[in-house]
Amino acid sequence: MQHMSKSRDPGSRLAEYFEFEEYETDLRTEVIAGATTFLTMSYIILVNPAILSEAIEIEGYTDQEVFQMIAIATILAAVVGTLVMAFHANRPFGLAPGMGLNAYFAFTVVILLGVPWETALAAVFVEGIIFMALTYFGARRYIIELFPAPVKFAVGAGIGLFLLLLGLIEMNVIVAYDATLVQLNDVATDPVALVALGGLMFTFILYARGITGAIIIGIITTAIAGWALTLAGIVERGVLAPAQLAAPQYDITPLAGAFLEGFHQIDPATFVLVVFTFFFVDFFDTAGTLIGVSQFGGFLDEEGDLPEMEKPLMADAVGTTFGAIIGTSTVTTYIESSTGIEEGGRTGMTALTVGVFFLLSLAAVPLIAAIPQYASYLALVVVGIIMLQGVTDLNWEPPAWLISGGLTITVMPLTASIADGLAAGIISYPPIKTAMGEGEDVHPGQWVLAAAFILYYYISAGGIISST
Question: Per the domain annotation, does 232 fall within a domain?
Fold first, then answer.
């Protein structure tokens, strides 16, 4: 009788399913770990719609209504990707639309290149399908061999600089200037810049003190400060707080499925480049994050590999594909998962907890529209600076690493394009490596990839194929 009662206990069933005994953990530890991971990555619920709404416009709906639609899509994509991670991979990693690629989606692909946002979603969908297929057939090793090592290691830092510059611009700290392209704004006379910088410093202090959820706390505190100054009559409504608030918008049908329309408006060359960039960054960002957090959690084998890595990669691919269907950019595994691992999270129960918290956050969507965008963008600066740690992964001594890696990092922010940064690194690597007398180490596919990029830019610049 006692055995029957135990078999019906949800806690014991979860313990058996997620193999608590094997990983030396328990339900309480896993739930606390999941809550911790959610708090550290929940800023994406605010930041992703803030970025994507710059590019996505839906006729008949206000900016705030579109903002809420994207917030819901962000949450649902995070839920699906994280649940696949929980039940398919049994790993304690949280997933959500990734920083960097959402900015590339909005500011480079849609705004700079002029690609319709529906087509950009179609590119994300195609990238997700390709990712799923390659993961299913175990082609990860061949993909890794194809890309120059310095480019792979430089991507994170390059994206970090891109986000850092973008965040400071959106916070009115840096402004356009003809002579030098950008310059420091007259911060003392700009209330948005003043409040944003105050919030940024507060967030840095929280982060430095190791406060869990430093970014989301910083965003909310900055928003409250903006509202307080507005309600006190110090600044006019619409400067530090939204001029008006929209009614709750839970209907995302105008956004969901819009990627299908995108297949009718494709410029083949540009579409292939966009798909390639989404895939490249998503693949190596996810792979790098998985290795990093797995090392932290002691999941790697003696060769430094994550056993059954295809399973967490599949969670990323499924999340990306589903996200594109409902209207958001590429989904990836979050490095913030390490905070939950530090709290003892070892199994998919941690990821399941993250997914449940994301699902519960749907109730807060109407409040999200009250967050001023400058408050959300401070997350880009904080995340961008954190990503600069990637420069230590580069070996700066060999010329091939110095030149290829250096170009990848610097060209991204200077062109506001992750794709252009990748191209600079990929094109420069084979000839520099050959000039060093190490041409035999260059994979034939790396020459083909470099030649393909050169051909694309030649055709685009020559006006044969317009990229705008």
Answer: no
